[in-house]
UniProtKB/TrEMBL annotation:
<feature type="transmembrane region" description="Helical">
    <location>
        <begin position="187"/>
        <end position="204"/>
    </location>
</feature>
<keyword id="KW-1133">Transmembrane helix</keyword>
<feature type="transmembrane region" description="Helical">
    <location>
        <begin position="290"/>
        <end position="314"/>
    </location>
</feature>
<feature type="transmembrane region" description="Helical">
    <location>
        <begin position="224"/>
        <end position="244"/>
    </location>
</feature>
<feature type="transmembrane region" description="Helical">
    <location>
        <begin position="492"/>
        <end position="516"/>
    </location>
</feature>
<protein>
    <submittedName>
        <fullName>Carbon starvation protein CstA</fullName>
    </submittedName>
</protein>
<dbReference type="GO" id="GO:0005886">
    <property type="term" value="C:plasma membrane"/>
</dbReference>
<dbReference type="InterPro" id="IPR051605">
    <property type="entry name" value="CstA"/>
</dbReference>
<feature type="transmembrane region" description="Helical">
    <location>
        <begin position="432"/>
        <end position="453"/>
    </location>
</feature>
<keyword id="KW-0472">Membrane</keyword>
<keyword id="KW-1003">Cell membrane</keyword>
<feature type="transmembrane region" description="Helical">
    <location>
        <begin position="62"/>
        <end position="80"/>
    </location>
</feature>
<feature type="domain" description="CstA N-terminal">
    <location>
        <begin position="2"/>
        <end position="347"/>
    </location>
</feature>
<comment type="similarity">
    <text>Belongs to the peptide transporter carbon starvation (CstA) (TC 2.A.114) family.</text>
</comment>
<feature type="transmembrane region" description="Helical">
    <location>
        <begin position="162"/>
        <end position="180"/>
    </location>
</feature>
<dbReference type="GO" id="GO:0009267">
    <property type="term" value="P:cellular response to starvation"/>
</dbReference>
<feature type="transmembrane region" description="Helical">
    <location>
        <begin position="6"/>
        <end position="26"/>
    </location>
</feature>
């Protein structure tokens, strides 16, 4: 099959989903009100609560939730064939992710921009809130620790990406001043920012930067991890308009230009999909497609991390409630389009089936490397872009998105500690600086405490990320569904994705539990049990709450 047809089918379906389905959900289910006074206006402080242009906020939300996950997941999942990955990405984006992201923004916006974890206490119950906060903390810990490892690895393997990656921060700081102080209109600032960013990408191969292999016994990988967390700590304390918003916004524009180039190259070269539609000859040890496909591809179909961003930082910057449709649902469309591009790069970016099979020789292979190499081949064949420039462009895309996710993730982890301080009346923990130190300290403890001097300890608990993340998405939909029932609105739009995700996540947790037991991996087995018990407990309490609310409504009627 030609990749052009796959591209047109995928993008066309997602476009129709935004035009028709998101409009229905926004107007009939969430009933977004343009006159509702958002928390960004009610609590405006110039630091976290800042009313923001919807296009800039879309850039923040989209790039914060994207990270490297919509690249890694699909580029691994195509081992089962491109059809299952394609269908889950397209239908997951339309009926799951968009509803989830816009719903989390709406739910938080209607409750003083409180996080989805804090909302659980009011909507479901206090016991559920405590368990939910543990699940949220684990997800953030995994994201921050692992993305730091992933970024450091890319910076080491592709030294040509160092200049554009770190240069993008200075570009963001400059355009942030122009946007916030309105020194220049958004269109002009956007053009200048993109030109600066692509100039850095062009300059990257001419000025590669490599850290010393060891400094006082600390490896280059560990050096980058330390630098990344120092940067993330500073970024999480700065006002959102100064770095977080402009960095995310300019990265969002950069991604769409990158996607236009990649999709344009597909149109010009028309590569064939060399990977099988359904892979009936998977390598030994490859797990079953159900339920693993639905937890391997999270970002790009639906991801619990999105709910944390939507209710943690995005809702605090929402200018009008009606912007939730564009920011949340269209943000999910943007991520779905990235996952679709990844599927094409990882299946049509190879010359032959044998070349593809050489990469996908065992489960877990592919990932960012397959996206970069396959995408670079398509760019070179389609538009004649130099191979090194193509690789730098795609690597910078992956690193910048992982970096923006890490920025937001650490800020969210700071919010979690502050919320714990508020819940348990620990006054010093409610302050930003101590909460940030706790957030960074917990990540570094995992990175170096579990991973040793290399700092890659985040990879230790990464096998649990997919299931825990999808479980979190299901629990977020639980909160949204309960709110809809309380308001007397139709709940099937969120209930169907909720039930599907809970079944798949719990099924995957049970499979992993057996795997960890067979490997005598007692640490991961213990964590798996904690997450599993939390999931079942919260689900039972939520089911009880929903049943009670439905009974009360029937009695009232």
């Amino acid at each position: 099959m030609n990749a052009i047809l796959l591209m047109l089918l995928g993008l066309g379906a997602m476009f129709l989903g935004y035009v028709f389905y998101s409009k229905f959900v926004a107007e009939k289910i969430y009933q977004l009100d343009p006159n509702f006074r958002t928390p960004a206006h009610e609590f405006e402080d110039g630091v976290d609560f800042v009313p923001t242009n919807k296009y800039v906020l879309w850039g923040h939300h989209f790039t914060s939730v994207a990270g490297a996950a919509p690249i890694i997941g699909p580029a691994i999942a195509v081992i089962w064939g491109w059809v299952p990955a394609f269908l889950w990405v397209v239908f997951g984006t339309i009926f799951f992710a968009g509803v989830h992201d816009a719903g989390a923004i709406w739910a938080s916006n209607r409750n003083k921009a409180r996080s989805i974890g804090a909302l659980t206490g009011d909507v479901v119950g206090r016991r559920s809130q405590s368990l939910f906060m543990i699940v949220i903390f684990l997800v953030l810990l995994m994201v921050n620790a692992v993305f730091a490892t992933a970024i450091s690895g890319l910076l080491i393997n592709f030294p040509s990406s160092v200049v554009p990656v770190w240069g993008a921060i200075f570009v963001a700081l400059i355009i942030g001043q122009f946007i916030f102080r309105k020194w220049m209109n958004l269109g002009t600032v956007s053009i200048l920012g993109v030109i600066a960013l692509y100039a850095l990408i062009w300059a990257g191969p001419s000025y590669p930067i490599e850290l010393p292999e060891t400094v006082f016994g600390v490896s280059d990988n560990a050096q980058w991890i330390i630098v990344l967390f120092l940067y993330a700590a500073i970024a999480s304390l700065l006002p959102v308009w100064m770095l977080l918003q402009p960095r995310d916004y300019i990265n969002g524009l950069q991604l769409f230009i990158g996607l236009i180039l990649l999709y344009g190259a597909v149109l010009i070269s028309g590569p064939e999909l060399v990977a099988p539609a359904f892979n009936t000859n998977t390598p030994e040890g490859t797990p079953s497609l159900v339920p693993l496909l639905f937890v391997t591809i999270a970002c790009g179909a639906i991801s619990g991390f999105h709910g944390l961003v939507a209710s943690g930082t995005t809702s605090k910057q929402l200018d009008k409630e009606t912007d939730a449709r564009f920011v949340g649902y269209f943000g999910a469309i943007g991520e779905g389009s990235l996952s679709l591009a990844t599927i094409i790069a990882a299946t049509a970016g190879f010359a032959t089936l044998a070349d593809w099979q050489a990469v996908y020789h065992s489960f877990g292979q592919g990932g960012v490397a397959a996206f970069v190499s396959g995408g670079a081949n398509i760019l070179e064949n389609g538009i004649g872009l130099n191979a090194e420039i193509s690789q730098t462009l795609l690597t910078v895309m992956a690193v910048l998105f992982a970096g923006t996710t890490m920025d937001t993730g650490l800020r969210l982890q700071r919010y979690i500690f502050q919320e714990w301080g508020n819940i348990y009346n620990i006054k010093w923990m409610e302050k930003a600086a101590p909460a940030t130190l706790l957030a960074v300290g917990s990540c570094l403890l995992l990175a170096f405490g579990a991973g040793g001097a290399d700092g890659s300890g985040g990879l230790l608990i990464w096998p649990l990320f997919g299931t825990t993340n999808q479980l979190l998405a299901g629990l977020t939909l639980l909160v949204i569904t309960t709110m809809l029932v309380k308001l007397g609105r139709p709940m099937y739009v969120t209930l169907i994705p909720l039930l599907f995700l809970l079944v798949m996540a719990i099924y995957a947790l049970l499979i992993q539990l057996m795997t960890f037991y067979q490997k005598s991996d007692w640490f991961l087995l213990s964590l798996d049990l904690v997450v599993l018990v939390a999931a079942i407990w919260i689900s039972l309490e939520a089911a009880s709450t929903l049943t009670r609310l439905r009974r009360e409504q029937r009695n009232k009627a």
